Amino acid sequence: MNDIFIPHSEIERQYEIAYSLASETKGKKACVITFGCQQNENDGERIMGALALCGYEITQNPDEAQMIIINTCAIREHAEIRALSEAGQFKGRKERDRSIKIGLCGCMAQQSHRREQIYKSYPYVDFVFGTDMHHRLPEIIKTALSAKKRFSFITDKPHNEFGVISEGMPVRRENSYKAWVPVMYGCNNFCTYCVVPFARGHERSRRREDVLAEVKGLVEQGYKDITLLGQNVNSYNGGCDFATLLNDCASFGGEYRVRFMTSHPKDASHELIDVIRDNERVAKHFHLPVQSGSTRVLKLMNRKYTREQYLEKAFEIKEKIPEISLTTDIICGFPTETDEDFADTMSLVKQVGFDMIYTFIYSPRVGTVAAKMEGQIPKDVSNARFKALSDMENDIAQSLNDKFIGRTLRVLSDGFNKNGIPVGRSTQNKIVTFDKAIPAGEFADVLIETAGAYVLGGKIK
Fold it and tell me: Is the whole model's pTM more than 0.90, yes or no?
């Protein structure tokens, strides 16, 4: 890949375009609808930042917006169907008011077969742009407001050459005390079930000084929970390794936590584990996706580690950090997965003792190796395995949470849950309810008195 950093002169040009739109967008509203992972959430915040820069008032209600952007996910078919269904909701609105502009972006937009479907079946979608075009949003918006026909801003480079990093575009954060901070983009791993390298490009890291400046600014603004993002944060290479970057980000003054998503087991270093253990501002939560407990299936997935190597890493984490919350991802029904392979997954889950498992039924992705494999598993078999794994994990999670009864946890308040109960999260990312209202964004000590599989309850001390 050539120089991936967008020149400051180009960022200045985008600002000039944005300012030139002020008279045209005055009094108009824009809405961004985001699907998918934390990276997509952060992309959505950057899209809203660019829209606000262009003069739009941001709204959560698409019915009152004159500019609507659907930020899509492609990790599973269900996510794509949801995004397309959302786009379909605006057909009637567009027919009633042709001045409404509808855009679609994100990982799904980066896939040629989905773009063709959008062009053919969703004629009311005015424009499409790719995952590395966010810095050009003012230009895209200007084009949308004047274009007489549909258009797209999609790179024509192959997946191993596209992808940029831009600094200096605005971010409109939806939360006043929790923040996402991307440290790297893309992925080089090419797991056989995954579209990320094709949708996000190859790995590229932000400069260390840019990440630290953003985190420092957030801490100074009073943010209390900061999550460093990357498709594989362990591959960070922007002037230091990820363990060093994490430690640096958690070394500013004041009380706050730093988390990270997501780690690849093959790259989770001893040094990273030591930083989590030794730095009090680093959250005691480690998300380490295993995907399968079968070495045979892991090889088919191109995960580049064995069952035994994963167990060694998981046991090291638990031994070095006894208070850690260890979570994972598992795919049920990967092509050719046998009953014996699934039994290996069940036994690994029992051996490790995960606090939570994000379990998914395998979803074939167009263009991936796994989608072409023989031995696709019937849905009823995958569903049965999903249920068996979920049932077992519920018991494991309950057992682990029971051990918190009688302990005092430092909890960051999230205000109230949907039932009006005060709620927050511990350093282990455990959901904790408590008896007194604490303003969102403030810390409190909570004595744990009750435990469910995924929720703890207690009293403010």
Answer: yes
